[in-house]
UniProtKB/TrEMBL annotation:
<dbReference type="GO" id="GO:0005635">
    <property type="term" value="C:nuclear envelope"/>
</dbReference>
<dbReference type="InterPro" id="IPR016024">
    <property type="entry name" value="ARM-type_fold"/>
</dbReference>
<dbReference type="InterPro" id="IPR001494">
    <property type="entry name" value="Importin-beta_N"/>
</dbReference>
<keyword id="KW-0653">Protein transport</keyword>
<dbReference type="GO" id="GO:0031267">
    <property type="term" value="F:small GTPase binding"/>
</dbReference>
<dbReference type="GO" id="GO:0006606">
    <property type="term" value="P:protein import into nucleus"/>
</dbReference>
<protein>
    <submittedName>
        <fullName>LAQU0S14e02960g1_1</fullName>
    </submittedName>
</protein>
<keyword id="KW-0539">Nucleus</keyword>
<feature type="domain" description="Importin N-terminal">
    <location>
        <begin position="23"/>
        <end position="102"/>
    </location>
</feature>
<dbReference type="InterPro" id="IPR056840">
    <property type="entry name" value="HEAT_IPO9_central"/>
</dbReference>
<dbReference type="InterPro" id="IPR011989">
    <property type="entry name" value="ARM-like"/>
</dbReference>
<keyword id="KW-0813">Transport</keyword>
<dbReference type="Pfam" id="PF25018">
    <property type="entry name" value="HEAT_IPO9_c"/>
</dbReference>
<dbReference type="GO" id="GO:0005829">
    <property type="term" value="C:cytosol"/>
</dbReference>
Length: 1012
C-alpha cells in the first residue's frame, strides 16, 4: 500500500494536469476501498523523515480532508462505515501528537498536524480521546514544547466548552499551567507570549455565568484574579520596552496588555486594586513615549514588522489607559499625560510626505475610511471618550499648550489641534469651560490660519477643527451666526486662493462640519449662501480632475448642503445646472464606490426636492437622455452587469422618487424611461440590476397617473411574471412585493380577472423565499391585502394547497409570516405587520385557530457534552402552539422591546435639549402621578381584564380608516400593541384568558407593567 501510495502522492503534485487528476482519482479510490489502511499509510508517510517534505505535507493535507469523510459521524461529510477503525484512529492520534509537538519539525508540517488534532478533538474529545489534554500538558512541561502550547491555544479556541472548562477541571488546570510558565525565569519569551494569548481565551471563559454559579467558583475566581493582576504587571516591567527592543518583546507586551484590559473591563473593579492600577499607569505612560518614538520621528524604526508591532502595542496601551481613567484624580499631573499623547499623535514623516504628494490619501484618512489604524487614531478615540474633570483637565492642558507653545515643531501644533478637535466631538454634559478660554482658542486658531509661516497641515487642521470648536461651545458663545459666517468665509478665501490641494479638501471637509450643525441657508442669508455655493463649486472643480479613491464622495458630501436652499430664483438657476453637471461628473469617476453612489443620490435628492414641474423638466433634459443611453447601451451590448449601469439606475430612481411638488411625473418622461427599464428587467440575469430596476419601476408607477400607464399594463405584468418566476433568485426579486402592491393599487379594476393568479404566484414565491429581505418584502403584500379585507385573504389562502400532503396554503403562509416577524426591521414595516396580524387575530377564524406553529425552543436535556461544532449540527426543537398564541407571544416580545428602549433624550447633546418647567405643568404631573395604581406583581387575568376594560381600544373609526403606512398611523408601535392587548383582554378574543394563563411569568409581567 505504502509504495503505491507514494507514487500516487508524487503524481498528485505533478504539473501535468492529466497525471495530477488521475493520481487524485486513484487516491480517492484507494481510500474508498480501504479507508483505514489508506489513512494510516498517509500518516506513516507524513512521519517518515526519509520522504521529501512536499510529499509529507501533501500526505497530511490529504489526511485532513479524509478525516472528515471516514473518521466519525460527527463530521457532516462522513460517508459511513467501515471508516478508519479503532486501531487506525489510535495510531493516527499518536502520530499527529508526535508531529504536532515536535518543535524541530517543519512549520508547515506542525501547522497541518495541529489542524488535524483540533479537527479530531472537536468530535472525539473528551469521550473518545480523554488523554489529549494530559498529553499536551506533558509535552509543555516535560519537553518545553512551544508547538504543544500552540495546539492547546487552538483546542481552547475551537473545542473547549464552558462545561469542559469548569466541570471537568480543564480550565483550572490550564490556569495553573499558564501561571507556572509566566512565573518561571526559564520559560522562553515565546512560551510566555503563547501562554498570555491562551490566558486571554481563558479570561473570556471566566466571564461566563458558570464562573460564578457556585460559591466555590466565585471564591476561586476572586483569588485567581487578585493574584493574576500583579503577576501580569510584574512581567510587563521585566520585559519593558527600551531602545533596541526586539520583536518578541513587543509581541509579549501586546498579549499581556490585552489580558489586563480584559480583567479591568470584564471583572469586578475591586479585583483590580488601586495599588496595581497606580503601578500600571506609571509604567504605561513611560512605555507609551518609547513606543510612540518607535513609530514616529527621527528615531522611528525602519523595520516594517517592528513598526507594526510597536503600533499595535501603542494601541493596547491607550486602550488600557482609557479603562484605568476611573482611577485618576483631579490632582493627577495632566500635563505629563497630555505631553505623552501629543507625542504619540504627531504626524509621521511617511504620512506627511504621502499626504502632500496625494491629497486623496489625506481625504480618505480624515473621513475615517482608511484601512490603517494607528496610535494616533486610538488616541483620538481616547479623547472622545473623556468625561468630567478628566475632559476639563485635558482640554485646559491642550489649549494652554497651543496658546503658549514656543516649540517651532509644526507637528506638535498639528497634534494639539487634532486632539482639541477630537475633544470637541465629545458631547459630555459634565464638561464646562471658561468662555474666555474659548475666545482665546478661537483667536489662536484665527492667527494660525492667517499666519503665512504656518505649515500647510497646521492650516488644514485649523480649518477642520474650527467648526467642531464652535459647535461644541455654541451654547456659551455669543452671536454664533456671526462667528460661523466669519470663519466659513475665511476658510473659503484660503481655499480659493491657495494652490494646496490639502487645504482645499480641508476647506470642503470643514464646510460639511458647519453644515452638520448650522442651517446655513438661514444663518448666512440668501446673498451669502449664494456666495458659499459659488465657493464650494469652485473648489470642487479645482480638485475634480485629480480626485480618486474616497475623494469623490467627499466632494459630493460637500456639494449636498449647497443644494438644500429654499431660496431659489432665476439668478441661482445657473448654479443648480452646474451642480447637476458636477454630480454626474463626480459620480461617474467611480460608479462602483458605494459611498459615491449614496452621496450622489443625496445630492440629486436635495436638488430635486420640492421643485416645480417646469424645473423638473429642465433638469430631466440634462440627465434622463444620458441615463436612457446607458441603459440602451447595456441592452444592445448584452452586458450582464456594469457599475455605470447600476449608478444610472440609482440616479434614475431618485428622479422617479422626487416627482414635481405640483403634480405627477411628466407623462413624456415616464413614457421615455418605462420601456428601457422594463427591457433591462426582462432581459437581465444579474440580481443587483433586477433589484435596482424594479425599485425604479415602483416609484415610476407610484408617481404617475394611472391612465397614462394603462398602455404599458401588459409590460408591467411581464415584469411581475419575471420577478415571481422560480428562475429569478430571491435576491433579484427583493422588491417584488412593493412593486406588486403598487400595481394592485393603481390597476385593481383592470386586474380583477387575473387577480387570483397573480396572488397565487406571489404566495408561492413567498413560501419558496429564503432571503430575509425578500421574505419581508413579500409579507408586505399580505399586510396590504389584509388591510383591505382580512376575511377574503383567509378564504383565498384556504382555497388551495401546498406540498404533497395537501396542506392548506394558509397554514404555510401564516407559519412563515410569524417566523419572519421575529426578524422584522424598520418601524413602518413593524407597524404594518402588527396592524395586519391584529386584524387576523380579531377575525377569530377557526381555520387559523387550528393552525399550529413553532413556539419556544426546547433546551437540550441529554447527558452528552455538546461541543461548539456539535451544537452547530444539532437541529433545534420547539414547542408547538396555536397561531393565535404565537401572535400574542410575538407581540409581547415586541412590546417588551419597545418599552425597554432607553429614553432618546439622554443621547441628545446638551445644546439640543430645551427643558421648560412651569408651575402649572408640574402641578399636572403631580396630579397624573397620584392617579397611578401600584402594581407590584404579575396580574391574574381578571385583574388584567379590569384594567383593560377601563380604556378599551375603540374601533369606531371603521376598518376603512386603518390604512397601511406610517403617515396614516398616528400611534407609535408601543401604543398599537397596548391597544391590541386591551381589546383582546376586555373582549376575551380567541379565549385570550387561556392564552394569557399559558404565557410565561415574565411575559405576563410585561403585559401587567404595560396595561396598568
Amino acid at each position: 500500500m505504502n509504495e503505491k501510495l507514494k507514487e500516487v502522492i508524487t503524481g498528485a503534485q505533478s504539473a501535468n494536469d492529466r497525471v495530477r487528476e488521475s493520481s487524485e482519482r486513484t487516491l480517492w479510490s484507494l481510500c474508498s476501498e480501504d479507508p483505514g489502511a489508506t489513512c494510516t499509510s498517509l500518516i506513516q508517510i507524513a512521519c517518515s523523515f526519509n520522504m521529501a517534505i512536499e510529499n509529507r505535507i501533501f500526505s497530511l493535507l490529504s489526511l485532513r480532508k479524509l478525516i472528515t469523510m471516514y473518521w466519525s459521524a460527527g463530521f457532516e461529510s462522513y460517508r459511513g462505515p467501515p471508516g478508519i477503525g479503532g486501531e487506525g484512529k489510535r495510531m493516527i492520534r499518536e502520530s499527529l501528537l508526535k508531529l504536532g509537538f515536535d518543535d524541530n519539525q517543519d512549520a508547515r508540517l506542525k501547522n497541518c498536524s495541529s489542524y488535524c488534532i483540533v479537527q479530531i478533538a472537536a468530535v472525539d474529545f473528551p469521550d473518545e480521546w480523554p488523554t489529549l489534554v494530559d498529553s499536551i500538558f506533558d509535552a509543555i512541561l516535560q519537553r518545553q514544547s512551544l508547538s504543544a502550547l500552540y495546539v492547546l491555544n487552538e483546542i481552547f479556541d475551537d473545542v473547549v466548552s464552558e462545561e469542559m472548562f469548569f466541570h471537568h477541571g480543564i480550565g483550572w488546570q490550564t490556569l495553573q499551567l499558564i501561571s507556572r510558565i509566566l512565573n518561571s525565569p526559564e520559560s522562553p519569551i515565546q512560551a510566555k507570549t503563547s501562554s498570555a494569548k491562551l490566558y486571554q481565551t481563558c479570561l473570556l471563559q471566566l466571564q461566563s455565568p458558570m464562573a460564578t454559579s457556585t460559591p466555590e467558583y466565585k471564591h476561586l475566581l476572586s483569588n485567581h484574579i487578585r493574584e493574576s493582576v500583579p503577576l501580569l504587571v510584574k512581567i510587563l516591567k521585566e520585559y519593558r520596552i527600551a531602545e533596541g527592543v526586539e520583536l518578541n518583546t513587543l509581541d509579549l507586551q501586546r498579549a499581556l496588555l490585552s489580558c489586563l484590559n480584559t480583567i479591568k473591563t470584564g471583572f469586578p473593579k475591586k479585583l483590580f486594586t488601586m495599588e496595581s492600577a497606580e503601578d500600571l499607569k506609571t509604567f504605561l505612560l513611560e512605555s507609551f513615549r518609547t513606543v510612540a518614538e518607535l513609530c514616529i520621528g527621527e528615531n522611528a524604526t525602519s523595520d516594517p514588522d517592528m513598526r507594526e508591532a510597536a503600533n499595535e502595542v501603542g494601541i493596547k496601551i491607550v486602550s488600557l489607559f482609557a479603562v484605568l481613567m476611573d482611577t485618576l484624580t483631579e490632582n493627577q499631573n495632566w500635563n505629563i499625560i497630555v505631553e505623552s499623547f501629543v507625542l504619540a499623535g504627531m504626524v509621521s514623516d511617511e504620512d506627511e510626505e504621502c499626504w502632500e504628494n496625494d491629497f486623496n490619501v489625506f481625504a480618505t484618512k480624515e473621513t475615517g475610511l482608511s484601512t490603517t489604524f494607528t496610535i494616533r487614531d486610538e488616541s483620538e478615540q481616547f479623547m472622545q471618550g473623556l468625561s468630567g474633570f478628566a475632559y476639563n483637565s485635558v482640554f485646559d492642558a491642550l489649549v494652554a499648550a497651543l496658546t503658549y507653545n514656543e516649540s517651532s515643531n509644526w507637528k506638535v501644533q498639528e497634534s494639539i489641534l487634532f486632539f482639541i478637535q477630537a475633544l470637541c466631538g465629545n458631547e459630555d454634559d459634565e464638561a464646562s469651560q471658561d468662555i474666555e478660554k474659548i475666545h482665546c482658542l478661537l483667536r489662536t486658531l484665527r492667527e494660525l490660519l492667517e499666519l503665512n509661516g504656518s505649515h500647510i497641515l497646521v492650516k488644514t487642521r485649523c480649518l477642520i477643527a474650527l467648526p467642531k470648536v464652535i459647535e461644541r461651545f455654541m451654547d456659551s458663545l455669543e452671536n454664533v451666526k456671526a462667528l460661523v459666517k466669519e470663519f466659513l468665509f475665511a476658510s473659503f478665501s484660503l481655499g480659493r486662493q491657495t494652490s494646496s490641494h490639502i487645504i482645499k479638501i480641508g476647506c470642503l471637509i470643514s464646510f460639511t462640519y458647519y453644515a452638520n450643525f448650522a442651517e446655513l441657508d438661514s444663518v448666512l442669508g440668501p446673498a451669502a449662501f449664494e456666495e458659499a455655493q459659488r465657493s464650494v463649486s469652485a473648489i470642487i472643480q479645482d480638485l475634480l480632475e485629480e480626485a480618486e479613491d474616497d475623494t469623490p464622495s467627499v466632494l459630493l458630501e460637500a456639494l449636498a448642503p449647497t443644494l438644500s436652499s429654499t431660496h431659489r430664483s432665476a439668478e441661482t438657476i445657473s448654479f443648480y445646472q452646474l451642480a447637476l453637471q458636477l454630480i454626474l461628473k463626480i459620480s461617474s469617476k467611480d460608479p462602483s464606490n458605494i459611498q459615491v453612489v449614496l452621496e450622489a443620490q443625496d445630492c440629486l435628492s436635495n436638488l430635486l426636492k420640492n421643485i416645480s414641474t417646469e424645473d423638473y423638466v429642465t433638469y430631466s433634459k440634462t440627465c434622463i437622455p444620458l441615463f436612457v443611453n446607458v441603459l440602451s447601451g447595456m441592452i444592445e451590448n448584452k452586458y450582464s452587469y456594469a457599475p455605470i449601469v447600476c449608478l444610472t439606475l440609482e440616479m434614475l430612481t431618485v428622479f422617479m422618487k422626487r416627482k414635481p411638488a405640483d403634480g405627477f411625473l411628466p407623462h413624456d418622461i415616464a413614457s421615455y424611461v418605462f420601456e428601457p427599464l422594463s427591457d433591462i428587467l426582462i432581459n437581465s440575469s444579474d440580481d443587483e440590476v433586477m433589484q435596482l430596476t424594479s425599485d425604479a419601476l415602483v416609484y415610476l408607477i407610484s408617481n404617475s397617473e394611472p391612465r397614462q400607464l394603462l398602455p404599458y399594463l401588459n409590460i408591467v405584468l411581464c415584469d411581475l411574471e419575471k420577478l415571481l418566476s422560480v428562475e429569478t433568485s430571491d435576491s433579484g426579486a427583493m422588491n417584488v412585493g412593493t412593486l406588486l402592491v403598487v400595481v394592485l393599487e393603481k390597476f385593481s379594476k383592470q386586474l380583477q380577472e387575473i387577480y387570483p393568479r397573480i396572488l397565487e404566484a406571489a404566495t408561492k414565491k413567498f413560501l419558496g423565499a429564503h432571503n430575509v429581505a425578500t421574505t419581508e418584502n413579500l409579507v408586505y403584500v399580505f399586510c396590504y391585502l389584509v388591510s383591505l379585507n382580512p376575511a377574503e385573504v383567509i378564504n383565498f389562502l384556504s382555497s388551495f394547497t401546498n406540498g404533497p400532503q395537501g396542506q392548506s396554503v394558509l397554514c404555510s403562509v401564516l407559519s412563515k409570516w410569524l417566523e419572519s416577524f421575529e426578524v422584522l426591521r424598520g418601524e413602518r414595516r413593524i407597524k404594518e405587520n402588527i396592524m395586519a396580524l391584529s386584524k387576523l387575530f380579531f377575525q377569530a377564524d377557526t381555520r387559523i385557530s387550528e393552525i399550529y406553529v413553532n413556539g419556544d425552543p426546547i433546551p437540550y436535556s441529554g447527558d452528552v457534552i455538546v461541543t461548539r461544532s456539535m451544537a452547530k449540527n444539532m437541529p433545534e426543537r420547539y414547542t408547538r402552539i396555536t397561531a393565535y398564541q404565537k401572535i400574542v407571544k410575538l407581540f409581547v416580545a415586541e412590546l417588551d422591546f419597545q418599552t425597554s428602549q432607553t429614553d432618546l433624550e439622554k443621547y441628545l447633546p446638551s445644546s439640543a435639549r430645551k427643558v421648560e418647567h412651569s408651575t402649572s405643568s408640574n402641578a399636572e404631573v403631580d396630579q397624573e402621578e397620584s392617579d397611578w395604581e401600584d402594581v407590584d406583581d404579575v396580574l391574574e387575568y381578571e385583574q388584567l381584564q379590569h384594567f383593560a376594560d377601563q380604556d378599551t381600544f375603540s374601533n369606531s373609526q371603521g376598518d376603512e380608516d386603518l390604512i397601511l403606512g406610517v403617515d396614516t398611523v398616528q400611534q407609535n408601535t408601543r401604543d398599537l400593541l397596548v391597544s391590541f392587548f386591551k381589546e383582546a383582554a376586555s373582549k376575551n378574543s380567541n379565549d385570550f384568558k387561556t392564552i394569557y394563563d399559558n404565557l410565561t411569568e415574565n411575559e405576563r409581567r410585561i403585559l401587567s407593567d404595560n396595561l396598568v
